[in-house]
Design a protein that fits this description.
single chain; about 450 residues; 3 domains; 21 helices; about 65% helix
């Protein structure tokens, strides 16, 4: 009886801890989202795109700043699900998308915690990784900002978790799910491709090295079928546009210039981009000295300590190496957010490298020290996050829009005596809540910076 009770406690503890981590990270991520939601051009475009029925969703992904679109509509499908589930609870306001995105990320973090715990047999290693990821200031500042690069990183993180759980080598349904999640990450954001390549590689590599030809062909068929199915909407999009819309024009131009010899690969830029993003995303406002050297050292230690765990290496070392190569042939500037989907791999490398000792108790002690350090620095990281990617005027826009609509007075125009960020739309909330302007009305409303609404009779048309 005692053994049965102990086994029951051992099986429920990981789930309970994962649920606690999910709830705690969700609470931190959505704190204040209804008052400072970052509602700029991309958020307005994407929330507006999912207001209709499912069959009216775009067939391609969001437009990219380097031209074209991402190669599939998975981001809009997920956002539509958020809109129909979370939206009704908050009057369908756009911060519902931020709440849904944060809930998805926290759920994935709970799954990743379980996956790392199971893979490493160390709860402290799992907690150290999740705590570093969840309290990273830049990541935290974007957690409830409705944005496709964030969703791409979430789906890539889930694909990593599924590989660590062994789904890539499980039943055909588990393999298909792993491939589908990974490929949907590319739909959401093209920069997730490096993680996805690592996932697809291990799906095929393990049966290849084990000389299991039947399994290899089965996995190859699953990969082909899943990706082909997920690309059907984009294929139809191209048919409708006469194949005139290129997905990533700037990327193809860069690759062509490098491989035709017109331009040399920008290796130094790629290295600095990865190291700079790792330091900025994960450790600001207190960046690590010699972060690049530390990451390389931990990478070597991880490869040595886990040299027989090809699945682990495929979602840690492989994505970073591919990113270094890929961004070396991308000739535009590199922004930090390009690397969001790579941060779980980088943080895993860091923690696994620091704990790569043959003595389990020492490894656990190091991981506990990392957790303690994260807890000590968490207040500064959270405060730093609160100063980024926020639009405090959102509260005023929501409140004023409700006042205007509840008043029931037709208005010719609405004016605002404060400035918004350049790509924000002050009238989007008003229209979303059902407000309409009447060109024949003599009334003009003015919204003050504190949310006060006044009316002025400007006469007839």
């Amino acid at each position: 009886m005692d053994r049965t009770a102990a086994a029951s406690r051992a099986s429920t503890l990981p789930i309970a801890l994962a649920l606690l981590a999910g709830v705690a990270t969700f609470a931190v991520r959505v704190r204040g989202v209804s008052t400072h939601f970052w509602m700029l051009r991309d958020q307005i475009r994407d929330w507006d795109a999912v207001q209709g029925p499912f069959w009216d969703l775009p067939l391609a992904g969001p437009a990219t700043h380097v031209g074209g679109y991402t190669i599939g509509p998975a981001f809009y499908c997920l956002l539509w699900l958020v809109r129909v589930t979370v939206g009704p609870w908050v009057d369908n306001l756009p911060h519902a998308g931020g709440i849904g995105q944060a809930a998805l990320q926290s759920t994935v973090d709970a799954v990743l915690l379980l996956a790392i715990w199971r893979r490493t047999q160390s709860v402290w290693v799992a907690l150290a990784v999740i705590m570093l990821l969840a309290t990273a200031a830049f990541d935290l500042s974007l957690a409830a900002v409705l944005w496709n690069p964030v969703v791409g990183s979430i789906l890539a993180r889930l694909a990593i978790a599924l590989v660590l759980l062994g789904w890539h080598a499980g039943t055909w349904k588990q393999v298909a799910t792993t491939v589908a999640v990974a490929w949907m990450a590319v739909h959401a954001y093209t920069g997730a491709i490096y993680v996805v390549c690592g996932v697809l590689a291990i799906v095929l590599f393990e049966p290849l090295t084990a000389n299991r030809r039947a399994t290899l062909w089965r996995h190859a068929g699953i990969v082909t079928a899943v990706i082909a199915t997920l690309q059907l909407p984009y294929l139809w999009f191209q048919v409708q546009s006469g194949f005139r819309s290129r997905a990533m024009g700037a990327v193809s131009r860069s690759v062509t210039e490098v491989f035709t010899g017109h331009t040399a690969p920008e290796v130094a830029k790629s290295i600095h981009g990865l190291v700079g993003a790792f330091n900025f995303i994960e450790f600001m406002p207190s960046p690590l000295p010699s972060a690049g050297v530390l990451l390389v050292a931990c990478g070597l230690l991880t490869m040595w300590r886990h040299r027989r765990d090809y699945a682990l290496l495929s979602v840690t070392i492989v994505p970073l190496v591919l990113a270094l190569v890929g961004y070396a042939v991308f000739l535009d500037d590199l922004d930090h957010y390009y690397y969001l989907s790579l941060m779980p791999s980088a943080v895993l490398i860091l923690v696994l490298g620091l704990t790569a000792v043959p003595w389990p108790r020492v490894a656990s002690g190091v991981a506990m020290a990392i957790c303690a350090a994260v807890l000590f620095t968490a207040p500064d990281r959270v405060r730093y996050a609160a100063a980024m990617n926020r639009m405090p005027e959102y509260r005023v826009l929501v409140g004023a829009s409700r006042v205007l609509i509840n008043r029931g007075m037709p208005m010719r125009a609405v004016r605002f005596d404060f400035e918004l960020p350049p790509t924000a739309d002050a009238m989007f909330i008003f229209r979303l809540l059902g407000g309409r302007l009447d060109p024949a009305s003599p009334w003009v409303a003015t919204v003050a910076s504190d949310g006060t609404v006044t009316y002025q009779d400007v006469g007839g048309v």
